[in-house]
Amino acid sequence: MASMTDLFLLKKSKVRDKMNLKIALLQILPGKDLDENLLIGKKACEEAKEKGADVALFPEMWSDGYALPQDEAEIRKLAIEKDSEFVNTFRDLASALQMAIGITFLETNEPKPLNSVIFFDRTGKEILHYSKVHPCAFADEKVLSGGDDFYVADLDFGRGKVKFGSMICFDREFPESARILMLKGAELILAPNACPMEINRLSTLRARSYENMVAVATCNYPEGQPDCNGHSTLFDGVPWLRDDPGVRDMCVLEAPGEPGVYIAELDLDQLRGHRSNDIMGDKYRRPEKYGILADPEVRGVIGGEFVHW
């Protein structure tokens, strides 16, 4: 029979081995230029590490504070290369801090710049480079090109690995974004953002998390940034527990409006248990019935009629 000491040590071991991922949402205000954003960003990453983060995520297009001049020459001046000093500084910082970093930036590209994020793991290795597939072409982002695809990668955070992908702001309004990432194996979606996070946008994040059985962490700019209000979130993708009655709130963290480095903790064991036992995600999909989704000619329903744009 196990002694009380043995039981205590076993319990302690189980607590220690629990697979939790700490995500730092850098809900911070940008400075006046690239150099100032570099310094502010480094300080925020250092604070995230002090708070025990495994990965730090910036809000959308941090390199220029989501500035989008409509003049072609002006926006080209703001765009930077993916191997620029700015981006490489965060590569080096990830290695120095032993913490993964998702740095966002306006990326040089032809014919128009891209809204991009690069993730470096805790060794400084680039593991994912994603450009926003759905720019807000109806507004100021008409000066940007859209990305080509959605990608997933393995993030080794020392105590284990998690397969993750990214979507950026308006991508969330398209169920296909998160669905593709789920089908490619993502357990976690890290989403930079720059817009007011009100009940409807927050509800889309909750829905993407629920329907795909994935965690969705979103980092927004705080109050004080034009057209932003903070409320960075983590939805953990677990609406109920197998052996518990009722439902639970998937919102693990909703930050206030104020600037700050907010730590959201994701219980990966709990998420993986839910994914293995529940019915959502790809369990009962019927893709043979979804042909219209792959028809590029069918663009939507307006006034009850299909419109071919």
Describe this structure in words.
By secondary structure, the chain is an alpha/beta fold. The protein has a single domain, classed as Carbon-nitrogen hydrolase (Nitrilase/N-carbamoyl-D-aminoacid amidohydrolase). The chain has seven helices and 14 strands. The chain has a six-stranded mixed β-sheet. It has a six-stranded mixed β-sheet with strand order 6-7-8-9-10-11, covered by helices on one side. The longest helix has 17 residues. The radius of gyration is 20 Å and the shape is globular. 40% of the residues are buried.
Descriptive key words:
Nitrilase/N-carbamoyl-D-aminoacid amidohydrolase, six-stranded mixed β-sheet, 309 residues, alpha/beta, single chain, 7 helices
Give the secondary structure arrangement, pairings included.
Elements: H1 4-17, E1 20-27, H2 34-50, E2 55-57, H3 72-78, H4 85-97, E3 100-107, E4 114-120, E5 126-131, E6 152-156, E7 161-166, H5 175-183, E8 188-192, H6 199-212, E9 215-219, E10 233-235, E11 251-254, E12 260-267, H7 268-277, E13 301-302, E14 305-306
Parallel strand pairs: 1-2, 2-3, 7-8, 8-9
Antiparallel strand pairs: 1-12, 3-4, 4-5, 6-7, 9-10, 10-11, 13-14
Helix pairs in contact: 2-4, 5-6
